[in-house]
Amino acid sequence: MRLDIQLVTAAVLSVGGLVLLFCGAFIAPQGEIHESLLVGFGEVATFAGALFGIDYTYKYRSKNDKHPPN
């Protein structure tokens, strides 16, 4: 259950970060948020999502290595 939550969080952070990177690079600023803030937060969210995904991969592998199939 905990690994499922971690996987969903990693996916949401990665996709959200990529959306913000796209918005910061290709959409003209119309409000109060400057594009550099969108790009900066998008990079941080994408990086955090990648780290969560890498951690999930290693936890999933170590969990499956401990219990070989019968």
Overall morphology = rod-shaped
Biggest beta-sheet profile: none
Tally of helical segments: 2
Report the average pLDDT across residues: 76
Share of helical residues? over 70%
Please identify the structural class as seen in this structure: mainly alpha
Q: State the domain count.
A: 1
- Rg over C-alpha atoms, rounded to the nearest angstrom: 17 Å
Order of secondary-structure elements: HH
User: How many strands in all?
Assistant: 0
Residue runs with pLDDT of under 50 for 5 or more positions: none
- Cα-to-Cα separation, first versus last residue: 23 Å
Tell me what portion of residues adopts beta-strand conformation. Answer: under 5%
How does this structure look, described?
- With 70 residues, this protein is mainly alpha-helical.
- It has one domain (2-63).
- 81% of the residues lie in helices and 0% in strands.
- Helix 1 (2-26) runs antiparallel to helix 2 (35-66).
- The longest helix has 32 residues, at 35-66.
- The protein is rod-shaped, with a radius of gyration of 17 Å.
- The model has no long low-confidence stretch (mean pLDDT 76).
